[in-house]
Design goal:
Elements: H1 12-16, H2 20-39, H3 45-63, H4 68-73, H5 99-103, H6 106-131, H7 137-153, H8 163-171, H9 177-193, H10 203-222, H11 231-247, H12 249-269, E1 274-279, H13 291-300, E2 304-313, H14 315-329, E3 334-345, H15 347-362, E4 366-370, H16 374-382, E5 393-395, H17 398-411, H18 422-430, H19 436-442
Parallel strand pairs: 2-3, 3-4, 4-5
Antiparallel strand pairs: 1-2
Helix pairs in contact: 2-3, 2-10, 6-7, 6-8, 6-12, 11-12, 12-14, 14-15, 18-19
Length: 482
């Protein structure tokens, strides 16, 4: 800013040509602003420091006997503002524009777009928390989008919402839209009505302001954040800064996005996709079973293991799922997997599911899947695994799957009811002690055999019969109209 060249394009002679008054002013304003803003958060701190610095600079010029015109010729003051020099959409020399050169900066435009978008949302979120008011993100994005379109057409710079200045206004009581409107009127009105006032602004003072903004960002992210951020996040910030300083803003943005994605995947993969793990010892279907069957299932429920999954199945979470299932696969006759709360799967998770099928077949374990929704079934099939054509049994919900698993285990073993007579069975179901009276009472019941699908009673039948189920099961169906 003081030489008119990029730092890396400047020579030692260029730096030596800068007068000491410019060096002292720029460095002094930058460091005074750093100290003043850390001591006081008052909204007048920055304007006062800039005004006093400009006044001191002019007094120093007078002390050295340098006139305003000489200072302007030497580059100490801002160049004159000529309205005719304003470049905008209407007076650009389109014939001289090198569009090929502009296109080579496409990556910079894309980087700036991402930076502005993220900055707008982060600043809106920060303002929402600081002001304890709900932010309208849609309105923020629309307003700043329109502002950037019109600002660009008018030759302006990229703009975003400012957290610091917004909070200064908020704490000063200027928390209405008129604060921004008044600021816009001043920015537009001063160059139009009285442009000569800009001639008196010392360039080193503005250089010190830019120095302050850069130092404030470095202090905020490299010093202050060290106390609040985890070491991994802090090292990421330092790495992004090094990449930006070495290779430029575009590689820095891409590097930051890459690190953020990688960190997210690592942290997300550490979260188990298993919401709940159970066996028949601690979870049952809604089927009412005989007390002896219930006792048997309590003792032998470890032959079934179930997993209720949730979230997204991808290579990280699916791999941890395989490790959990492998732990219980050897001792399980039935493996029950509920997918009702799973949102999506990827190709790598299908590989894990196929591996689970292979291990289950090797261990002679039956697999049942419950809660398989249509969209998830299509995703799985798109990756080459049709669950309906595999050896997997599919049930519409977890309760149906549990009912099937209980029945499978009871039928595959010595049933606890096979050695009980009908009279003993009736006494047990009624809760009677086994004696002569209970046997006489049980003998009053009549034994019936019903075919599959036959109704015991229907709605409207007289309630003059008590049914006790000795073997098999009965279901209750309720028709709900509308």
């Amino acid at each position: 800013m003081l030489v008119g060249k990029n730092l890396f394009q400047s020579s030692l002679a260029d730096l030596q040509s800068i007068p000491l008054i410019s060096w002292f002013t720029a460095l002094g304003v930058g460091f005074v602003l750093i100290l003043a803003t850390r001591i006081s958060k008052h909204f007048l701190v920055i304007p006062i420091v800039l005004a006093v610095s400009a006044l001191v600079f002019h007094l120093a010029l007078q002390f050295q006997g340098i006139s305003i015109s000489s200072a302007r010729e030497a580059g100490h003051l801002l160049p004159p503002l000529v309205h005719g020099d304003w470049k905008n959409l209407l007076n650009l020399p389109y014939a001289d524009i090198r569009w090929d050169v502009i296109l080579t900066h496409g990556k910079d435009f894309a980087s700036m777009f991402l930076v502005v978008l993220i900055t707008v949302l982060l600043n809106a979120t920060s303002l929402e928390l600081a002001a304890e008011q709900d932010a309208n993100y849609d309105r923020e994005l629309k307003a700043l989008g329109i502002a950037n379109i019109f600002g660009g057409l008018a030759g302006g710079l990229v703009s975003v919402n400012s957290f610091n200045r917004s909070m200064l206004n908020y704490h000063a009581g200027a928390n209405s839209a008129w604060a921004a409107r008044l600021c816009a009127c001043l920015v537009i009105g001063v160059p139009i009505i009285y442009p000569d006032c800009l001639f008196f602004m010392p360039k080193p003072v503005l250089t010190g302001l830019i120095l302050f903004l850069g130092l404030a960002l470095l202090l905020n992210w490299l010093w202050d954040s060290k106390r609040n951020l985890p070491i991994s996040d802090y090292l990421t910030i330092v790495a992004i800064l090094v990449v930006v300083a070495t290779f430029g803003i575009t590689p820095g943005v891409l590097f930051g996005i890459g690190v953020a994605v990688f960190t997210f995947v690592v942290k997300f993969s550490r979260q188990s996709v298993v919401k709940q793990r159970f066996s028949l010892s601690n979870r049952r279907s809604n089927v009412e079973r005989h007390p002896k069957e219930m006792d048997w299932l309590n003792q032998n429920g470890v032959h079934l293991h179930g997993f209720i999954l949730h979230g997204d199945l991808f290579f990280g979470t699916a791999s941890s799922l395989l490790d959990e299932i492998r732990e219980f696969l050897v001792q399980s006759e039935i493996l029950l997997i509920d997918l009702w709360q799973v949102r999506s799967v990827d190709a790598s998770s299908i590989v894990i599911l196929k591996k689970i099928l292979r291990l289950a077949k090797e261990n002679d374990t039956k697999i049942a899947v419950t809660g398989l929704q249509t969209h998830l079934s299509k995703q799985v099939e798109a990756f080459g695994l049709n669950l309906y054509k595999s050896e997997i049994l599919i049930f519409k919900d977890l309760d149906y799957g549990l009912e099937w698993a209980e029945t499978q285990l009871l039928n595959s073993s010595d049933s606890p009811l096979k050695t009980i007579s009908n009279t003993e069975e009736i006494s047990l179901l009624l809760g009677f002690e086994q004696n002569k009276k209970s046997e006489n009472f049980a003998s009053q019941f009549e034994i019936f055999d019903f075919e599959t699908g036959q109704f015991l009673f229907k709605k409207g039948d007289p309630s003059d019969t008590l049914f006790l189920i000795l073997k098999g099961k009965a279901s209750v169906f309720l028709s709900v109209s509308g």
